From TrEMBL:
Domain GAF: 45-150
InterPro entries, alphabetized: GAF (IPR003018), GAF-like_dom_sf (IPR029016), Phosphatase_reg/MetRdx (IPR051330)
Coiled-coil segments on the chain, per record: none
Protein family according to the UniProt entry: Belongs to the free Met sulfoxide reductase family.
Lineage: Bacteria, Bacillati, Bacillota, Clostridia, Lutisporales
Annotated organism of origin: Lutispora saccharofermentans
Protein name per its UniProtKB record: GAF domain-containing protein
Signal peptide (UniProt feature, chain positions): none
Amino acid sequence: MFKLDGIEKMNEEQKLVYMLILLEGQLSSERDALANLSNAAAIIKAVMNRLNWAGFYIMRNGELVLGPFQGLPACNRIKLSSGVCGAAAASRKTQLVPNVHEFPGHIACDGASNSEIVIPIIKDEIVYGVLDLDSPEFNRFTELEAKYLEKYVEKLNKYIDWKEI
Ligand code: SME
């Protein structure tokens, strides 16, 4: 059974470290890439608060296709020329967007989203997808979270064979 022990007493960084520990537990006990990505999305949604969506888009034939996620049903396909996800994949850089309504080409999958962070998933110089988090709060995401979410993706990269997805 999944339990979040003592999380309410943790500060921001302790929670992010804990999230990495939970991910390591998942990845080291299961080899299936789809199961691992599904629980990776669920761990983020369980640990980080004030989120309305957390999940993955996977690169398929030059566009991003919806992968495992937690939240409302979302856009199935995103071109690299559009949205925050497309920008992260095309630029290969984390996009920390305090107000999505000011981001040119932002795609409103869930009307509740007001801020967003997207981390590109890059292994051996190939972009395999993105990790996308949305919040109903403006200016929700911090540089510290960006740093730890990049570590989260590094850990996924260590265990996941993206070609299996
Ligand atoms: N807002 C994203 C689209 C994906 S959803 O937020 C789940 C974007 O602009 O790329």
